[in-house]
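Sorry, explain these tokens?

***
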Amino acid sequence: MRKLFSIILTTILISILLMGVSESSHFGHENNPVNNYVSEKYIKESIEDTGALNIVTGIILDYRAFDTFGEATLLFTGLIAVILVLFKDKT
């Protein structure tokens, strides 16, 4: 019974994943999210919106600040975990 349940669950998960992949947009298509209005807004209005002279700096530190903060927090947490594991007292 457990084997049958595992096979059915695996088949359902594979089907869901394949349906998700088949619904994704094709590479190079003009309606991809990469080609939407956000990139144009970043390029045209980032200097006025952020006050940064560098477009990349303005995007990372102003438009995507929470995302960048989350990534930095994740990396810092991982580093602390590795340090705790490596320098664990052997007693």
User: Anything to note?
Assistant: The chain has a mean pLDDT of 85. The first helix runs from residue 2 to 22. Residues 32-91 form one domain. The chain is about 75% helix and 0% strand.
